[in-house]
Amino acid sequence: MKGSLFLTVLFLVLMFAGTAYAQRVNPKKGPGGCQKSLEICEIDLMTCEDESLTFPGDGYGNPDAFGLSGHGPALSYTDNGDGTFTDNNTGCLWEIKDDADGVHDKDNVYTWTEDDSDHTDADGTLFTDFLDKLNNKCDGDESTTCTTNAQCSGMGNGLCGHAGYRDWEIPNIKILHSLIDFTTSNPAINVGVPGDTGLNFYWSSTSFTPSVSAGSAWLVDFRNGIVDNGGKTNLDRARAVRGCN
């Protein structure tokens, strides 16, 4: 009787420990990442891996290029067929830029802020125009305000927000720079990235040393991959992202 009681208690302890471990598992989020639910992890812990965001390599296909290792994983992207593409390393979902009139035009330029006297305000057209259209307008329509797909019935492609998402944002400087392919230039982006890329600077959401000069933000030059900073009232290009976290 005591042996049976001991085995029952041991079984319950092991089951609880397994469940607790499963709850600590952090599957990689975002398109192309681990989408296994907590329930699956609890059933079979071996089917769920603890994956974290992986940055892509520098673009060199040969892992020992120039006699040096450490070039990182191969650059890899998937065109989702809905105006977005996925970075298969980071799992980030990116807006595809084009060369047509509209919010996705690669040559559109925006300001980070409109007010030189308060550099902390994200009130420039980068947010009030670009992100507003991606998040709060019918996809393919760009003029009808919406919060649900039902409000876009018969307009554009019937979705509220670009590709049906309403959480598009301006990438921080590290995420933005992860698109750079250091083996090429003009543009410094891999041929596997769908769409077009403007040969100029693109905004990040990262302010330049805020304690010293919050009036500037970091940018990436997609002509050659360099990182620089510019005044927030300047006009520069933009590319939106979502799903990196």
User: Ranges with pLDDT <50 over ≥5 residues?
Assistant: 5-50
- Individual helix count: 5
Radius of gyration: 22 Å
Oligomer: single chain
Tally of strands: 7
Largest sheet: 4 strands, antiparallel
Distance between the termini: 51 Å
Main structural class = alpha+beta
Q: Which percent band covers the strand fraction?
A: 5-15%
Helix % is: 10-25%
**Strand ordering within the main sheet:** 1-2-3-7
Describe the structure.
- By secondary structure, the chain is of the alpha+beta class.
- It folds into 2 domains: 2-47, no CATH class; 53-245, no CATH class.
- The protein has 5 helices and 7 strands.
- The protein has a 4-stranded antiparallel sheet, with no helix packed on it.
- Strand 5 and strand 6 (227-231) form a beta hairpin.
- The chain starts with a helix and ends with a strand.
